[in-house]
Amino acid sequence: MKQLRLAKRYARVLLDLASERGAVDEVKADIKSLEGYIANLRPFPAFLSDAKISEDKRSEAMTEATALLRLRPLFAHFCQVLVVRRRFVVFPAIAAMFRKLADLRDGYVRVKVVSAETLSDAEKDALRAGFAAKFNCKPVCEFTVKPELIGGLQVEINNVVYDNSISARLDTMRRKLTGNSQR
């Protein structure tokens, strides 16, 4: 919980700075580059936050990474601040929160749609239009297939799951018929 609050605080500051400079998209691109780099060097965030390693060595490692990745000065400086304060271990949460806050600011809402079968482009477009109208937003949809749903959809939007799948309906019917109200 503490890390989430910390991540939100840092993400807000980064978003404010990026917004002031008109560089939100550039920061998003830099975040993505750094996430890819970190994925290949799993101990890197822990190294950058390790109090046993001198600040100079940690800072030097970050400087090399930002140069290698050609990160822009705003984001490179932000990363150095995280290193100096030994907060880089929270970077993945900061990155996720930054994207979420930037999306909210721009009116985008992430939607996860799970269906039993692959949806056609027309069906996907109809869902996007429906979400836009219902939630007054610009939906960014992630579509996945889960055959065990049998039919219908599961939709997650704003951390709320709407389950209108046949498997959920059958499960509800089974519980009612057996008198078992628990899942």
Descriptive labels:
single chain; 183 residues; alpha+beta; Peroxidase, domain 1; 2 domains; 8 helices; 4 strands; elongated
What does this structure look like?
This protein is an alpha+beta fold and 183 residues long. It has two domains: 103 residues, N-terminal domain of the delta subunit of the F1F0-ATP synthase (Peroxidase, domain 1); 72 residues, no CATH class. Helices cover 62% and strands 15% of the residues. It contains eight helices and four strands. A four-stranded mixed beta sheet has the order 2-1-3-4. Helix 1 crosses helix 6, helix 2 runs antiparallel to helix 6 and helix 4 runs antiparallel to helix 5. The longest helix has 19 residues. The protein is elongated and about 65 Å long.
Fold topology:
Layout: H1 2-20, H2 24-40, H3 44-49, H4 55-69, H5 73-84, H6 91-106, E1 108-115, H7 121-135, E2 138-145, E3 152-157, E4 160-165, H8 166-178
Parallel strand pairs: 1-2
Antiparallel strand pairs: 1-3, 3-4
Helix pairs in contact: 1-6, 2-6, 4-5
Oligomeric description of these chains: single chain
Q: Please, what is the average pLDDT? A: 93
> If you consult CATH, what is the topology of the largest domain?
Peroxidase, domain 1
The main β sheet shows up as:
4 strands, mixed
> What's the SSE pattern?
HHHHHHEHEEEH
User: Which ranges are low-confidence, i.e. pLDDT below 50, for 5 or more consecutive residues?
Assistant: none
Share of residues in strands: 15-25%
Q: Structural class, judged by helices and strands?
A: alpha+beta
Number of strands: 4
Strand order of the largest sheet: 2-1-3-4
Number of helical segments? 8
CATH architecture verdict of the largest domain: Orthogonal Bundle
Approximate helicity band: 55-70%
The end-to-end distance, rounded to whole angstroms, is 28 Å
- The CATH homologous superfamily of the largest domain is called N-terminal domain of the delta subunit of the F1F0-ATP synthase
Task: Tell me the number of structural domains.
Answer: 2
What characteristic shape results from the CA principal axes? elongated
At the first level of CATH, the class of the largest domain is Mainly Alpha
